[in-house]
Amino acid sequence: PVDPVPSILVSMGLVESPSGHHPAWLVRALGTISVMWSLVLLSRLAIVMGLGGATAIGWLAVAGPLAAILTVLLLLVDAAIIVIPRLPVFLRLPPHQQLRCVIPTILLSGWLYALVAREVLMDGSPGNTQTLLICVILPALVAVSIFGGQRVLGFVYCAASLGPFLLNLPPTVPLAVPLAGLAGLLLAAMAQARADQQNLQRRLENSLRGEQAQALITDFEEAGQGWFWETGRDGQLTYVSATLARKMGKSVDQLLGTPMTGLIEKPDRKAAAQGEGERTVGFHLSARSAFADIAVRAALPGEECWWSISGRPVVSEFGQFLGFRGSGADLTEMRKSQAEVSRLARFDSLTGLANRVQMMATLEQCLVDPAGRQGSCALFILDLDRFKSVNDTIGHPAGDALLRLVAQRLTRVVGHDGQVGRLGGDEFQVLLPGMVDRHELAKLSETIIHSVSQPYVIEGTQVVIGVSIGIALAPYDGTSVDMLIRNADLALYKAKDSGRGAYRFYSQDMHADAEDRRQLEQDLRHAISTGGLHVEYQPVVASATERISGFETLVRWTHPVRGPISPTDFIPIAEEAGLIAQIGEWVLRTACQDAGGWPEGIRVAVNVSPMQFANPAFPALVMSVLAKSGLAPERLELEITESVFLEDSGNTDAMFARLKALGVRLALDDFGTGYSALGYLKTAPFDKIKIDQSFVRGAAVKGSRNGAIVQSIVSLADALSMETTAEGAETLDELELIRSLGCSHVQGYIYGRPIGNAAIMARFATGDLYARASGFKSGRETRKTMLRSVVLSLADEDFEGRIRNISSGGAMIEGLADVPPGALIRIAFGSRYAVEARCCWSSGDRMGVEFVQPVSLDRVRASEARSIRQKGVAEALPQRKAG
Ligand code: C2E
Ligand code: CA
Ligand code: CA
C-alpha cells in the first residue's frame, strides 16, 4: 500500500511513513553524502587557507586559540558526517531516524564552518562581510550539490552557515535578502521533496505491480502448470520460461534466438487434417494473428508430450509489430486422463476385460476387413452355469472374485486368438477374428468349458461352476452385428437347454425353434384368455392303507393343432413370458373349487411356481381363494420346489410363515433334484417331502442305488416329522420297495394317472376311497419307444442303425442283420455319448442288446432333443414286458 497523499514531513523523510514505505532513496543519499563530504571539507580548507593566505601551521598561529578549537570541533563533526552513515547501528535505524541524526551534525557543521571562517578572516570587522559570505556560500554550493535529493539537509546547512552572519550583518545588506533566499530554499526543498515522494510512490507502485506479476509468473511456471514465450519480429524466441527449457533438456540461452516453431513437432498427416499442430501455429505466426489453445505435440524425441499453445501479436503504441507473446500448457496429463476415461468407458471395471460397447465395436470391425469386404469371425457368447446360486451362497464380493478368476481363465485359454469381453453379470463374450473352422472352434469350446469348470478356491471355500457357450460364425450365420449376436444368443439358449456345460453352433432350425417358442407363447396367451386350459388330478395314496389321501392338480393344455402339450414344456414358457401368475391363480381357484365338492379329508395339492412364491401378494391370494371356495385350509397342500431357496431374496422365511399362518400345508416337491444343501429343511415348515421320480423309478432294479437314497430321505423326513410321497411309482416292484422303505405316501401310474374332476366325482359317488395298484410286476425297466439314428461299430466297422426302444439296461436296435448273440457292439448316440452293448438276440435286421453299463436316458435324450423335436415323433409309451 502507498499513502494516498504523503504529508510534507513524510515527503521530507522526517517522520515515519504510515504505509511503512520509507523513502529509501533519502537514506541512500546519506551514504552518498558521507562519501562526498570530504569534497566539502576540502573546498572549505582551500577557501579558508587561500583567503587567509596562511599555511596550515601559520594559519593556526594567525587564527588564535578560539579558531583552533572551532576547527578541531568542525573536523570532529565532519568526521562524524563521514563515518556515522556507514555504521551498521546507524544503517539499522529507520530512515526518518537516520535523517534526524544527520540533521544536527549538518547543522553543526555549517554553523561551525561559518564561525571558523569568521574567526579566521574577519577579525571581527564588518567590512569583510562580503568576502566572508563568498567563503561560506561556495562550500554551501558544493554541499547542496552533494545533498542532491536530500534538500532538507541543504536547507539546514545553508541556514546554519548563514546564521553567524545574520547576527551581525552590515547595514548595506538588508536582512530580508538572506531571509528571502533561505525561504526560497526552504520552499524549493519542500516542493522538490514532495515531487520526489510522489515519484517514489509511482515507482513503488509500478515495481510492486511488476514484482507481483513476476511472482505470479514464477509460481505458475514453477508449478509446471504452464510456461510463457515471446518472440521478436523474426519469430525467434526472445523469452522462454526456464521450466520449458528444462523440459526440453536445454538451457534458456540455448533456446533464445531459435525459431518458436522449433519447439513443436512437425505435424503428422492425421493431426494436420484436424487443423492442428505446428502448421497451424506457423500459419498464425506468419499471419501475425492471435491464436488460442492449439494442441501441438512437443518436439521431444521418444516421448509423447502434448501442449496447448496460445499467443498474441505484440504491437507498439505506434502500431508497429514487435513480435509474439504467449503461453503454453502441458496437455499430456489431460490427454492421458482422457485416455483413461475412454479406457474406462470401453473396459469392464471388475475384470478389466473389454465391455459390451468395446466388444460391439470390435465385432463391427471384424465384420468388415480392411479392404472393406465382408470379414469372417466367430462369436462365442458364454453364460456361467450356477453362478447365481454360488453368488447368493458365498456372497457378492466373493462372486466378484469368482468373475475375475473366470475372466483370467478365459483370457488364458483364448490367448492371442481373440478378444474376451464381459457383457455384464455372468455373461462373457469371445471374439475370434478370421477363425471359422468348426472343428477348431469345437476344440476351443471344449477347452474353455473344461477350464472354467475346474474348481475355484475363494476365501477358502471351493466352488464349482460351469459354462455354456453359443457360437455364431460370420458371415455364414449373420453379416451384421445384431444378427450375429442374436444367433449366438439362440445357440447359447440351446446349449443351456440341452443340460448346461455344453456348446452349440448356431443352426437355422434354432431360429425356427425360437420362432416356434414365440408362436407357442402366443397360443398359450390365447388359451389362457379363452379357457383353453384344464386341470387333471392324480391320486396320492397312503402306502399303508391304500386309502386315497388327496389328489395333485396338474394343469393340461390341448393345443388346437399340436394336440396335448406337456406342462414341462409350457410352464417354463409361461414363466418366461410372465403368464405363470395368471395360470397359477386359475389352477388354484379351480382346484379349490373342485376339491370343495370332494369328501371331507381328501386333500388337494397345487403346484406353485417359484415366481408365484416370490410375489408378496401370494398369501393374500390363497386366503381369498380359500374363503371363496369354502375349502378348509388344511385340505390345501401347496407344492413348492427347492428352487425357491436358490432365489432366496431374504423374504422366503417370511413367506413360509405367512402361508403357514393361513393353515395350509406345504410340500417340498421334486426333492433331490435341485439344491444340494439340506440346511433349509431345518427351518422351512414343510409337512411333506415329495421324493422325485428319478429316485423312485428303477429303484427296484438290481444294483440300483436309488433305494438307498430313498431310504435316507425317508429317515431324514421322519426325523423332521414330515410325511413322504414317493412320486412316479409305475411297477409293483417299485411300489413294494417304496412301502418297505417306509414312504408314507405313493403317487404314480401304479395307482392311477391324472383324471378329470368328473371322473373323480363319479368315483366318489361309489363311495370308494381306496386305490388299487395295477401295473407290471416288472423286474426289468420298462422300455421307451425312441426312434433315432445311432452309429453302430462292430469289429471296427461303422453301420447306421436305429433305436426302436430303450431303457437304461438295454435296447432294441434295427439296421444290422445276423449279429451273433454275445457280440460286443459300440453304440454312439451323437458325437458326445457312446456306450458298449452285448447282443442278446438277432432276427432279420433287428436285435436286442444289453448295455454293459447302465445308460443314462437323460443323456441320450439330451443328445437327441433336437432331432426328435424336428421330426415330431417324440412319444414315450411303455413298450412291453420283460421277455
Ligand atoms: P410334478 O409336480 O413333479 O408333477 C408330477 C408329474 O409326474 C406329472 O407330470 C405327472 O403326470 C407325472 N407322473 C405322475 N406319476 C407318474 C408315473 O408313475 N410315471 C411317470 N412317468 N410320470 C408320472 P405332468 O403333469 O406332465 O407335470 C409335469 C410338471 O409340470 C409337474 O411336475 C409340475 O412341476 C409342472 N406342473 C404341472 N401342473 C402345474 C401347475 O398347475 N402349476 C405349476 N406351476 N406347475 C405345474
Ligand atoms: Ca408337483
Ligand atoms: Ca414332483
Topology (SSEs and partners):
Elements: H1 8-11, H2 24-52, H3 56-83, H4 88-91, H5 95-122, H6 129-147, H7 151-167, H8 176-222, E1 227-231, E2 237-240, H9 242-248, H10 252-255, H11 269-273, H12 278-287, E3 291-297, E4 306-315, E5 321-330, H13 332-346, H14 356-367, E6 377-385, H15 387-394, H16 396-414, E7 419-424, E8 427-433, H17 438-453, E9 456-458, E10 461-463, E11 466-474, H18 481-497, E12 503-505, H19 508-529, E13 533-542, E14 548-559, E15 563-565, H20 567-576, H21 580-596, E16 603-608, H22 610-613, H23 618-629, E17 636-641, H24 643-646, H25 652-662, E18 665-671, H26 680-683, E19 688-691, H27 693-696, H28 706-719, E20 723-727, H29 732-741, E21 745-747, H30 757-765, E22 784-794, E23 797-806, E24 810-814, E25 824-828, E26 834-843, E27 846-851, H31 857-871
Parallel strand pairs: 11-12, 14-16, 16-17, 17-18, 18-19, 19-20, 20-21
Antiparallel strand pairs: 1-2, 1-5, 3-4, 4-5, 6-8, 6-11, 7-8, 9-10, 13-14, 13-21, 14-15, 22-23, 22-25, 23-24, 24-27, 25-26, 26-27
Helix pairs in contact: 2-3, 2-5, 2-6, 3-5, 5-6, 5-7, 6-7, 7-8, 15-16, 16-17, 21-23
One calcium ion binds next to strand 18.
Q: What topology, given as strand order, has the largest sheet?
A: 13-14-16-17-18-19-20-21
Shape: elongated
Structural class: alpha+beta
- Helix percent band: 40-55%
Distance between the termini: 120 Å
Uncertain segments? 269-276, 865-883
Number of strands: 27
Largest beta sheet, briefly? 8 strands, mixed, barrel
Mean pLDDT over the full residue set: 84
What quaternary form is this?
A: single chain
| Tally of separate helices | 31
Query: Roughly what fraction of the amino acids lie in strands?
Result: 15-25%
> Nearest-angstrom radius of gyration?
56 Å
Bound molecules: ligand C2E, calcium ion
